[in-house]
């Protein structure tokens, strides 16, 4: 051998090192390819094999779905049947099952095409690395779910392989076995099958032409039923006496019953005559259920509210009587219990709605989820309203203001007529209604004149001349006490001077009445009696310097300096 240059020797050594390091890797890759087996379900036999003569593209999940739906759209049920795993399906006609499965998938199952891989091993290459299924081959994919007999039935495709055959993607045997039962629920009604063929053809989206026509008809029929219900209840209500319990109940359920007629009629028509396709059904089903639940809750709550209002309104006068302290306690607690029952019914209705609607796999779930997010925003914004609701329960149980109590609020004497969720309804002495927030009765002070004892001291204040003889006024005051039947505890009666200035003095006359209503009338009579007595004394006094009773304007004259 000739002498080799150092540079050439270095290149030879580098090439040798690269070859030695690559050899194990290449050998390892070949071993994996030879030893690896596809991730499949093994079956005994398949009717069709993959290849150029196969009626469907069964190599990948996306290929199966695209070719199956294309065959179904063309009405080629013989080719579409190649996508069904018919193993252990006794007595089933493959073409009939393929036609029914196509109708179910086309009308009732929203296919997420982005989740269907176009790879034989079904590896999801679009998912994130944090997904536990990232890079993992699959042999089963759930296309969608349909409710059947209070359970969720999956529509799945599976990768199967017969002995000495190639792996193929087909609809799983469990899915094929469930097709007849699902078709009974989600397939066309007898009325739909009677429609002409052109009306059953697809118009747009997943809607057939008959659905485009039927949808406004269904809404119109529901609106017609609601209108008839509204006018019928309105006519019945007008025939009833306004003072009867039935009139109050009919008035209360008027609108909820109208809403129930609308939603119930739509549900009945849809179930009997029309079964709308997937996305439209997924949108209408939760909305329809919400309307029905809301209407039923509205009827129940309206009846409770009407009966309670009827009971309290009929007893308002009796509740205001001083001796009915126990009745005021009872009806106030009953009002609190009514609000608790209302809240419990609302929570129960919301829970039933979430459980019964099965909306987690429907388009309606997105709507409800959006509504839930909006609800959180509204709850945050309505913190004061929620605080008022808690305050109303606090008032009812603490009984700081009871139904029938006489209170002094915002400078007005009122009776408590109703304690609501967010407000109190007060009736003034002159039959006006004051709506006051419940927070005003928990965070601010107010006077409750009937909390412990309905009796109270009524007082009349008169401005009299500073020269008036107060002792002389006590005689007509004593006469009033002795002769007025509404005065109780005469020994508590007082006549006293409470203020004085350069113009007049203020004399107060106080007597006790049995309750605020009686006391107000007595208060007016006392003022009239004492003013008359003061006027008589003032007229008898004559000119100055004899004592006067009614204040007079005085003139002060000063002689001018000469």
From TrEMBL:
Residues 385-451 form the Mechanosensitive ion channel MscS domain. The keyword Transmembrane helix applies. Gene3D superfamilies: 1.10.287.1260, 2.30.30.60. GO terms for molecular function: mechanosensitive monoatomic ion channel activity. The keyword Transmembrane applies. Its main location: membrane. SUPFAM superfamilies: Sm-like ribonucleoproteins. Keywords: Membrane, Signal, Transmembrane, Transmembrane helix. It is found in: Membrane. InterPro entries: LSM_dom_sf (IPR010920), MscS_beta-dom_sf (IPR023408), MscS_channel_2nd (IPR006685). One of its GO terms (cellular component) is membrane. The chain crosses the membrane at residues 207-233, 249-269, 289-308, 336-356, 362-382. Pfam families: MS_channel_2nd. Residues 1-27 form the signal peptide. It comes from the Bacteria. This is Mechanosensitive ion channel. It comes from Qipengyuania aquimaris. The lineage of its organism: Bacteria, Pseudomonadati, Pseudomonadota, Alphaproteobacteria, Sphingomonadales.
